[in-house]
Amino acid sequence: MHTLALNFEFLFSNFSQLTITGLALGSVYAMVALGYTMVYGVLQLINFAHSEVFMYGTFATLWTVYFLGGTATTSGFALVRMFAVAMVVAMTVSALVALLLERVAYRPLIRRNSPQLMSLISAIGASFVLAETMGLRDNITKWVGLNDDLSRYVTGARDTRGLPMDIESHRLFPIGNYQVTNIDLIVILCALLMMMVLDQFVRRSRLGRGIRAVAQDPESAALMGVNSTRVVQLTFLLGGLMAGAAATLYMLRIGATRFDAGFILGVKAFTAAVMGGIGNLRGALVGGLVLGVAENWGSALVGTQWKDVVAFVLLVVILLFRPTGILGESLGKARV
Amino acid sequence: MTTDQPTGEVMLEVDHVTLRFGGVTALDDVSFAIHEGEILGLIGPNGAGKTTCFNVMTGVYRPTMGDVRFRGQGLSRMKRFEITRIGIARTFQNIRLFKTMTALDNVMVGGDTHSSVGLLNALFRTPRQRHEEAETRRRALELLDFVGIGRRGDELAANLSYGDQRRLEIARALATNPKLLCLDEPAAGFNPAEKERLMELIRKVRDQGYTVLLIEHDMRLVMGVTDRIVVLEFGRKIAEGSPTEVRDNPAVIAAYLGVDEEDAS
Amino acid sequence: MKRPTLPEITLPAPLRSKPVKIVGLAILVLFLYALPILDLPIITTPDSDFGGVLYTMATYVLIALGLNIVIGYAGLLDLGYVGFYAIGAYTTAVLGVQHGHWPFLATIPVAVAVTMLSGVILGAPTLRVRGDYLAIVTLGFGEIIRLAAKNSDWLGGARGIQNVPKPPSVHLFDVPHLRWENGTVLIDVSNKTQAFVFGFIDYVPYYWLALTVIFIVLIADVLIKSSRVGRAWEATREDEDAAEVMGVPTFRYKLLAFAMGAFVGGLAGSISAAGANFIYPDSYQIQVSVIFVAAVVIGGQGNRWGVMLGAALVVYLPERFRGLEEYRILMFGVALMLLATFRPQGLLPPRNARRARKLERDLEELEVGDEVQEVTS
């Protein structure tokens, strides 16, 4: 067995880069984690199919770019505008997928008071259905007869599909020995901004209060006139919006996606949510950022092939010492 | 049956117990003792801290200050299942039976408390395991009969009537072979006839040699079945004594001001 | 809320007697062993080797039995069960070919022990945290095992380990398969299984091995579940806090469930490695764990027959209807959703009806001769 040498030298000499890019990565995790944590806070369900909500957002981004005529030469303001539109589209698409999910995969079970495990099974089934539908899109369009018109969108249904352009990153300013790029900044700031808006919404608005009420005590909330179905829908909607935005930021950084790209990211995002304290919105933020940075540091220390392992080891360690997660559970239920 | 002075040995001692959490003082320097063989009632208006006190006494909460001792042994360091093993059993106010298990199985789980048989014995069906299993089963059937649901053993706990579920809880608690049986509002939701039968059952339990602690709202039940009563208000003990003493105690009357002695059910 | 009860099927009295039951059981067992030989027309998979399919089904049934202990009996959501499966397979491979030349049968006890140990190591810290977190931690465990195998040259790296040892072969006799043509049954001497030769092409002997192991595990399962261990698990699953109050040391029993689950998982892994010519890390991905969980829950978690059925179906149906290869996962997803919505208790939920009759007999015994205080209810 080859020895596990900890490459501290690499870590320290590239500290700034690893940390900043880790924060960018973590921002994406955090935004997706919000979807998991909110649904869990309100329904005590693991929204297994949220990863596909994200994945559809990435494809929405990609296809919007295609549709708007993006090519390898698109740049500057046109590019910015293109991605801004793409983000709006992606957020809409993800939100719609999330609402569909709630209606079809969760609501019938909640209505029937099904055991929690069954909701998980339904979610797993929905996850497979959503991912496979994307992976079989060429077959599906063939049946419907639209194949030629949409060929650009549906070819290579099982392959990785990339943006038609390389997103050039412009170096902006140095932190340490790393030149922070515009992409890094956009991702981090965008994510932080959106999460702050969401946080304020949940804490200040009437609808947000409804979410917190249902999360704490569904029965009392109902007695207070809160429509719990609407609240659940709203929860899914918000999670979907966040995931869609995260999807566009993800495409900005990574530039490519696949029908099964949601899965691993979803698992990591859920890990981040648990790490930060499930049900806790700020916890999702903290958890996501911590995970992103830790992954980078970890892969510097022990090699990139162990990157995913870092996430889980970190989770176990945190749960051992702080069973309710970094910021503790919230939104909700104080379960004895 | 009421006695003015308790005669048995001290079984459970609540010693200057204070419990604070989240800025609230739920219990404030509460002290009293339960003696062997008596039926002690714990009463007080809503919010007095009865359930909190009950939970401290059965080891669910740890007191901020003070101690609870069972037959001389402090409870604070023990794990919950150990507390049951040394002889304190309890029922739950909101009935926490194992719903998908049969009534018989529910009681047998209690009976398994003192079983020393493990996985390997079960796997190879050793004589010791078979003997213990038969014993546990026999005792469980006995207890089901004792509380009055002898014929219901094969039914799922979830399918029992409310009254039978309460009885089952008592049978299950008794199966753990306790010295002290703690009943948390066992008559909640009962009509007067059922309450009467419950009182009989509680007396029967004491006559079998158990000591009983009882939280209840229904004054008639408490007055009728207990030997002594402890009264709490706002986390403090305001009275202790026989039912007659407590009933005539002005502090107690004041605490319940506006509330009839007969609790409206 | 009343649970839906299945209709009671009572056989006429003579058929309920013990000797008849035993004979019936024996016939069923023989039928199961004979399945690949019988080659029945509708049941047999047309496009893939039926013996191989049965072998895979048997392995999955074994896994389902093990996972049923964790999820069904003890109520612990384990999304990383594939980890135990992998550890069992890899231990056999490592001892048998990668770093040793152990005979297959000798690797089994070690594989099982190592897997159990990993189950305890995993469980000891994580079973103390809230049950809902267990899912994600176990999922991580499964991934860690896979990645450790993939990144470690000692374990064969991404390519895996080839030439995993096989059980010892002893050629005693040949069993010709049946062949069905136009409604007549022929004995096809050219298509025969050599009993008991563990080779590379004919999976039937592997199936027989797996089936035998299933029966052993099944017996152990029945014995353990009907004892105080089974009761403790059920109580813990139903209401952990109440169970503690009733004297059940819940943490110990949860750990025991984990260890037992690991035992069976490792055993299944070992057996599956025997029939596979090589094992590689990416065959132990999270999705496989998810399928295991689905099989258990579909079947009716907590009911050993149900989970066995669920596991068998999960393997069998895609193979039987191979033409729709591309749509398999899609259909699986749809099936899961439909099942979750319309039959949440699973295909075969646990029943308690049989015990009613036994209880009546016990009560009569108790009443004869004893004075019983009847408190009328």
Q: What is the CATH topology assignment of the largest domain in chain B? A: Rossmann fold
Residue windows where pLDDT falls under 50 for at least 5 positions of chain B: none
What's the helix-strand series of chain B? EEEHEEHEHHHHEHEHEEHH
Molecular shape of chain A: globular
Secondary-structure element series of chain A: HHHHHHHEEEHHHHEHHH
- Low-confidence parts of chain A: 332-336
The CATH topology of chain A is given as ABC transporter involved in vitamin B12 uptake, BtuC
**Gyration radius of chain B, rounded:** 19 Å
How many alpha or pi helices of chain A? 14
Query: Greatest chain-chain interface?
Result: B-C, 63 and 42 residues
What's the CATH architecture of the largest domain in chain B? 3-Layer(aba) Sandwich
Structural class given helices, strands, pairing of chain A? Answer: mainly alpha
Task: Give a short synopsis of this structure.
With 336 residues, chain A is mainly alpha-helical. Chain A has helices spanning 8-13, 15-43, 50-67, 76-111, 116-135, 137-144, 151-154, 182-204, 206-216, 218-223, 228-254, 261-276, 281-302, 307-321, and strands at 161-162, 171-175, 178-181, 256-257. Chain B is 38% helix and 23% strand.
Structural overview:
- The complex is a heterotrimer of chains A (336), B (265) and C (377).
- By secondary structure, chain A is mainly alpha-helical.
- Chain A has a single domain, classed as Orthogonal Bundle (ABC transporter involved in vitamin B12 uptake, BtuC), CATH 1.10.3470.
- In chain A, 72% of the residues lie in helices and 4% in strands.
- In chain A, the strands form two sheets. Chain A has a two-stranded antiparallel ribbon with strand order 1-4. In chain A, strands 2-3 form a two-stranded antiparallel sheet.
- Chain A is globular.
- Chain B has 265 residues and is of the alpha/beta class.
- Helix content of chain B is 38%, strand content 23%.
- In chain B, the strands form two sheets. A six-stranded mixed beta sheet of chain B has the order 6-7-8-3-9-10, with helices on both faces. Chain B has a four-stranded antiparallel beta sheet with strand order 2-1-4-5, with helices on one face.
- In chain B, helix 3 (103-111) packs parallel to helix 6 and helix 5 (127-147) packs across helix 6 (162-175).
- In chain C, a hairpin with a 2-residue loop joins strand 2 and strand 3 (184-195).
- Helices cover 61% and strands 7% of the residues of chain C.
- Chain C has one domain (46-367): ABC transporter involved in vitamin B12 uptake, BtuC, CATH 1.10.3470.
- Chain C is globular, with a radius of gyration of 23 Å.
- Chain C has 377 residues and is mainly alpha-helical.
- The longest helix of chain C has 26 residues, at 250-275.
- In chain C, the strands form two sheets. Chain C has a two-stranded antiparallel sheet with strand order 1-4. In chain C, strands 2-3 form a two-stranded antiparallel ribbon.
- Chains B and C meet through helix 2, helix 3, helix 4, helix 5 and helix 6 of B and helix 6, helix 7, helix 8, helix 9 and helix 13 of C.
